[in-house]
Write a sequence for this structure.
């Protein structure tokens, strides 16, 4: 198997605009590594450089600076046919007039190993629980979006890749199909532990499939960690607000007597060394705020039922601020009701409102 190391990669593009050419930094000094057999997710909003990073790792785009290594060998020194890359794109990129069987088997056929194709296909069908047999005779226009992506994944696997690269492979599928496809891929990645990189803007996919997640913003990696760490211990406001649904609550406040005090809540101890009057944003996830009979009073603006979890998501307002929280369905809260609330001080993350950096 193969580890992947990216060192100090920078890539700029020149884009024409009405006011002349402008330079876009798609990647700015990006370093990241993936251990052999692991899956890394690259997560970030549209345009942040995810595809460019994947293409640099695949050797399809040449960086302006920096290097990519497979194991300890510079990618530039590995001949194309020895790179062993299996890639799956958003649109499948299948050859229009080829039947699925030919697409999947092409790489083996080239190497005079076409007799292995049926067994490969049977194995993939068995692991995913998805019958590929019915698709084998069909051409791309006779396949649904989900079926096309399954053929594209099977094609990539049939190449015996050293590295498996995915660029938002399921983003064109509807929600239900996407869940199913993600589940099948998860089983495949467990069964074939190929070093993989998975580009997505969907945090559920990232958390389900990856050992480690790189959160990107404007050409840089903001944080590289396990998903749980990004959620519980974000380094800055961007990561804190990008990760997690509903979005983390942010409440303004200041430091007094070594405690944070906001408009509605307060009296939470903060770390030593913060001057009196320091302004801090308190970040608290919905599960860090709860219904508490002795708590601070808010007014419910909106109540949304999450039936599968037997709970209600509440949008609560008080003193010109608002927050999201959950209550058990049985509590019976509705829009318009008053609700007393308390924050668990241990669940609060503090940020510098100017720089966005985590303070405590
Ligand atoms: P993402 O995959 O995260 O949506 P991309 O890596 O595709 O982002 O793009 C990052 C930035 O680089 C964007 O601003 C995009 O417009 C720009 N870019 C990407 N490829 C090219 C290209 N071939 N020519 C010019 N600009 C590009
Ligand atoms: Mg992209």
């Amino acid at each position: 198997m193969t580890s992947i190391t990216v060192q100090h990669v920078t890539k700029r593009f020149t884009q024409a605009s009405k006011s002349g050419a402008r330079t876009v930094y798609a990647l700015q000094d990006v370093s990241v590594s993936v251990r052999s057999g692991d899956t890394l997710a690259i997560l970030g909003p549209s345009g942040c450089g995810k595809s460019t990073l994947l293409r640099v790792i695949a050797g399809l785009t040449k960086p302006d600076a920096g290097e990519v290594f497979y194991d300890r060998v510079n990618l530039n020194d590995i001949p194309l046919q020895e790179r062993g890359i299996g890639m799956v794109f958003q649109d499948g990129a299948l050859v229009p007039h080829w039947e699925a069987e030919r697409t999947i088997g092409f790489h083996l056929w080239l190497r005079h190993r076409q007799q292995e194709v049926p067994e490969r296909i049977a194995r993939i069908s068995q692991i995913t629980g998805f019958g590929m047999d019915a698709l084998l005779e069909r051409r791309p226009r006779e396949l649904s979006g989900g079926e096309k992506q399954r053929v594209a994944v099977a094609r990539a696997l049939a190449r015996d890749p050293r590295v498996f690269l995915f660029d938002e492979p399921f983003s064109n599928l509807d929600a239900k199909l996407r869940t199913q496809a993600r589940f099948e891929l998860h089983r495949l990645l467990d069964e074939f532990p190929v070093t993989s990189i998975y580009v997505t803007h969907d945090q559920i996919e990232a958390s389900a499939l990856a050992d480690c997640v790189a959160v990107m913003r404007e050409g840089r990696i903001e944080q590289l960690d396990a998903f749980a760490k990004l959620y519980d211990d974000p380094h800055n406001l961007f990561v804190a607000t990008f990760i997690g649904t509903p979005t983390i609550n942010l409440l303004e406040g200041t430091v007094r007597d070594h405690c944070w005090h906001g408009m509605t809540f307060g009296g939470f101890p903060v770390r030593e060394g913060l001057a009196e009057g320091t302004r801090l944003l308190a970040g608290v996830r919905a599960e860090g705020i709860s219904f508490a009979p002795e708590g601070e009073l808010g007014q419910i603006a909106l109540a949304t039922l999450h039936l599968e979890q037997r709970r209600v998501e509440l949008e609560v307002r008080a003193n010109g601020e608002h927050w999201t929280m959950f209550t058990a369905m049985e509590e019976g809260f509705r829009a318009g009701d008053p609700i007393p609330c308390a924050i668990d001080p241990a669940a609060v993350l503090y940020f510098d409102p100017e720089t966005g950096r985590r303070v405590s």
In short: Helices lie at 50-58, 100-110, 117-128, 145-157, 175-191, 203-209, 227-232, 237-242. The chain has two domains: 4-236, 249-359.
